[in-house]
Specification:
Blueprint: E1 7-10, E2 13-16, H1 30-37, H2 43-56, E3 65-66, H3 69-76, H4 80-92, E4 96-100, E5 109-112
Antiparallel strand pairs: 1-2, 3-5, 4-5
Helix pairs in contact: 2-4
């Protein structure tokens, strides 16, 4: 018996999501997405923001989450120096907020600032 394939049609774009990957999704308002696109972030910064969104909004709408540099490195493939620089730049631009600093054996906590009016220009 052949496995049933599920295709999603989004206007002209048709894409396939394998059944084992159909377990979840992240809802993100178009307004946030469109404004993120306009921020001219580099690849590492986008990866950090997307991972943060995945670990907050992607987990039943959490407002903040603990993310260690090691965890971010494992998920994004970027080295720790680039990640640290990206996080600090995102914080300076007020796209990301550090809600708790890292301490011995405890990862820092971060949240995504969904108030786009507070984001600072580059």
């Amino acid at each position: 018996m052949a496995e049933e394939l599920e295709f999603y049609d989004d206007d002209d774009l048709i894409f396939y999501i394998p059944p084992e990957n159909q377990k979840g999704f992240m809802k993100l308002h178009h307004y946030v997405t469109e404004n993120l696109i306009r921020q001219h972030l580099n690849g590492c910064e986008y990866a950090v923001v997307l991972l943060l969104l995945r670990m907050t909004m992607g987990y039943n709408g959490r407002r903040e989450t603990a993310l260690s540099l090691k965890f971010i490195r494992e998920r994004t493939g970027y080295n720790v120096n680039h990640i640290n620089h990206a996080i600090n730049k995102l914080i300076k631009r007020e796209i990301v907020t550090r809600t708790q600093t890292a301490a011995m054996g405890r990862a820092a906590k971060y949240s995504f600032n969904d108030n786009i009016d507070e984001w600072a220009e580059k």
